[in-house]
Amino acid sequence: MIYISKKTNIQDESTYFQTNKNKLPIIDLASEIFTENTEPLLHTNARFWIVKKGSALVNIQGEDIKIKKGSMVGILPWYYTQIKEVTEDLCMDVVVYDLDFVNILFKRTNDLFMEDYSLSNLVSDNVYVNLLPEEEKEVKAILDKLKNEITKYKKSDKFSNHMIFVKFMEIVVIFEKNIDSSSKKKLKNKHDIQIFHYIYSHLNENISLKNISENFYLSQSQISKYIKETTGLSFSSLASMMKLVKLMGYLNFSQMNLEELSVILGFKDPPHLSKFFKAKLGINTSEFKNKTNSHARKVIDLGKMEEITSYVFKYYYMDLKLEDLSIKFRLNQTEINNSFDFYLDKSFDSYLTYVRIINAAKILLIKDDTVTDIAYTVGFNTTKTFNRNFKKIYGINPSDFRKKLIYQTEIL
User: Where is the HTH araC/xylS-type domain (predicted)?
Assistant: First the structure.
């Protein structure tokens, strides 16, 4: 538990995530209590605040918002926040995560269905939502499970990293479905998410309306009617679609053979699975794998992209150009730039500028160098260009930024 007294600081989490980028990201949890106002705080990692108790007026990137019990707030990396007025002691859970890597996983998942998805855009466009009481309970249950999986992950449980990401996705889904949902919530009832989640989680058991009826204490006709009105599908069609989606995901992301997938998804045997898949998509499983792998090659693979971004982060202060990366990594410039856009929602030039600015922000707070010296140190050719880009990200000029914030090495 962390009690925040009056102080101004930047959260330095450079050693927070001991992340192997070939695995899922480490997503961590903390609890915070605010009993009084704070000075501006700059966060170096993304997070969600889930307010469990209390209320306050907070400022996020210059905008005042009121948060209270049930509020869920999204904070992106290098956002600054300030508790301006605590009307009732504020107690919140904090989910801290590696935005870039989570974004990559979300994009890879949604790319399967040709949908453009960006968690960073989702959060930046919608700073906070207010949860219903039953949603608060749902989030609490997810966080309890997430905490348990994180504990197991830190004890080297090789499967927990997958569950960590699944639980995090559930949190994001709850956040997303509450965006502009004043009218949508009227269409929801307390069973909707649970029923669909239950079906999806029990596909391997040849789930039936009878199973659902017994679990939710509703008649089979009520459930069937609800599914039809909500999705436009019959129960059997919905279950088939869920099986197909799950199967497509396994084929695209796992190395499991058809026999293993038959067991996981409740098919009698591999031939039945293959027949089902071809009937739905018109191609067999091997053709599908070849097709999705071909689509994935339109951008650089994740491992190579990690090498490139690490190189940029290491040598950001040099006169780096797209041509330099093309020569060093033996890739064409268009492919590299497209990959920056796909993985990081930024062109190469925008990403390089971003890296320079966030490093400049740190230098401003830990050294006494002049703004001009820092501008040249991080790779800008003119102070004017540096100031313009700095203000674009932080909303204030470098000199005022230095006056408002001091550096602190505490993680949370």
Answer: 193-291, 306-404
Query: How far is Cα 379 from Cα 187, in angstroms, rounded to an integer?
Result: 53
The one-character DSSP state at 268 is: S
What ranges in 1-50 are assigned the alpha helix state H?
A: none
Nearest-10 crossing angle of helices 235-253, 192-201: 60
User: 3-class SS at 128?
Assistant: strand
- What pLDDT score does 292 carry? 59
Distance, CA of 133 to CA of 68 (rounded, Å):
12
Query: Hey, is 220 helix, strand or coil?
Result: helix
Q: How far apart are CA 233 and CA 20, in angstroms?
A: 42
Q: Which of 202, 206, 95 is nearest to 144 (CA)?
A: 95
| Element holding 305 (H helix, E strand) | helix 302-314
Cα 7 from chain centroid?
29
Highest-confidence range of 86-95, 155-164, 264-273, by mean pLDDT? 86-95
Hey, what are 274's tokens?
């293959």
Distance CA 266, CA 242 (A): 12
Q: Name the pTM for this structure.
A: 0.48
User: Which residues, in sequence order, are bridge partners of residue 393?
Assistant: none
Neighbours of 153 (CB within 10 A): 21
**DSSP code, position 299:** S
Under the banding of pLDDT at 50, 70 and 90, the label for residue 53 is very high
